[in-house]
Amino acid sequence: MKNRIFAASHERGMELTAADCPLDYPEALPGHSAARHKPLRAEQLAGYAESRVYVISALQTGYVIGLRLGTDRPSGTIIADWGFVPPWPDQLINWDFEPWDIIPEGNLVAYEGLLKSRLMGVLNDRRVLRRGYPVGGLLCGCSSEPIPESGEGPVSGKLTLLDDVGNKVELCTALTVFRPPTRAGWCFQARESLRRRGELFSKPD
Asked: What is the pTM of this model?
């Protein structure tokens, strides 16, 4: 009996999904009717990699957004600009942070596999996003402005992406406000990161 070798296709992807082997971006596989209509895709990561607003201290708010980007353009695509509107629009967010600057040490294991990625290079350094190779990672930022005392539970923001040929994607991001027990070491780490990186900035919309 000859071994059957199957090329990647949406049909085979659906068979794997039905067999409890889910795939990332099954709609990007050849044969899916919608694939050619998405030159730029953005998806918020779900599961254990929860997107959160961390109340670091009375004057510091951290943001962690799990994100995956993809494209179906044969030549790939380049992100020309992006911006994020937080749940509290008056906040200015500095996105020049690493995950371990914001996420408490005990929570890092939930984000394993996303701690080092090409995401920020794709967003900020115009690195090419190639078809068939989606990029997942964590968008991490910090604000020197606190959230309202009433800020609890689920909240939402909006991420906007623009590629080099004018394709625009808007993604509503679901975030959970997390107020961990006060831990001086964690707060000190974030304060030191702010001091090293200088004045806060926010990407323009």
From this structure: 0.72
